[in-house]
Amino acid sequence: MTSNTAKPENLGQLRRSPQFDARKAARSVKEEMRENLLCMIERKQPLFAGIHGYEETVIPQVVNAILSRHNFILLGLRGQAKSRILRGLVQLLDAEIPYIAGCEIHDHPLRPLCRTCRELVAASGDDTPIAWLPREQRFVEKLATPDVTIADIIGDVDPIKAARAGRDLGDELTIHYGLLPRANRGIFAINELPDLAGKIQVGLFNIMQEGDIQIKGYPVRLPLDLLLVFTANPEDYTARGKIVTPLKDRVGAEIRTHYPATVEEGMAITAQEAWVKRHGRNTVVPNYLSEVVEEIAFLAREDKRIDKRSGVSQRLPIACLETVVSNSEQRAVRNGEDPAVARVSDVYSALPALTGKLELEYEGELKGAETIARDLVRRAVGRDFSRHMKDADFQNVIKWFEMGGELKVSDTSSADEVVKQLRKIQGLLENIDRVGVNGKDGAGLVAAAGEFILEGLWAHKRVSRSEERGFFAERPKAPEPREPQNRPPRRQFN
Length: 494
What we know:
By secondary structure, this protein is of the alpha/beta class.
């Protein structure tokens, strides 16, 4: 149906429309998605825009499930784009489809399911009113929680509707439909499937297999046209008693998601999702600092003090980067600087964005979330420093500190003030070109690069740092004087 052509408004106009295709009208949702997916592949159109790192792993498996007309589940830890993938399935639906106007379950005009629509078509024939449903409204999503009821998912008898129409409670026309029937001719997604009560899981596989439901003991035949998709934590899904076996058996494909495999993939995701470009103010995040933020997440996923079963969400580097930019933004406003350039000290200011996203093991609980977060930042800087400053000579810098030099840099200090302090350290700014900065660049970039080098040296324990003194060198302690010992007099022999 083109934009210049008036859409059919009743069943007769729909049948007579030159754009009406009887074969397409008879397709199921799964057939519709399958055909549209094959067309996108043939035209080499991008699938699941905005998803990075899954091109060779998850996406091919999702494609196979759709081409096989399978209901499927995505198994993965938090922050692995499971919900985004499910929402991206909408692109595989037709732009819009016709349905009988006013129908709660969007009945097909040629194949109505509910009794109300069947009676309407029988009485009105070609004059049956038609409405159009856009693809965005054909996706229904529900977060599974223990308090979800059959009425929420399937439906329930509505006594008020029965009383107003003077009908018996056992009449099909007294049913108030739940989310699942209202998703008819579309996609129904359930997040965290294991949290659903067992009786609701039974209702789901009844719909999947038999197309019937029971509401208050009243059997209702509803062969719904649906693609059912789910998400779950792998451990919950495999735990005995969490999933009803018949439901698990009817899920066509189990697809494992994962975190980014490389720092570059993680940076691409974070750059896409993080709010870094602030309206009305120029903000700059040096590339090496974006690497540091991403390394924090990678190190956290490897850390034994952090719960592997919970995972470390990709939201951690996203929230961290946004807070880093905010701290640099307020410093720039206070000091009248433009642009606002992020520094390593801003990463330490983002600790509140890190601590709330770390689920700790017993050992981690003993140390505390903030201590672990600080340690992760230090190690991330150290790892990135090794990448950029390999074979760099910092002997003059270390000597400066060993000769008694000290430098304290605040995250509120202006860039000019920081650069002035950094220039006192012989040999420090000679290596900033290794992170793409030269002396002619603005003070903000020079200050950020110099601070990164100092933090890197501290991370590798080549200089020391404390909150009170800033950067300094530990002087070797003088050996303690030995106490004189009273020796017994020598014995003389004749």
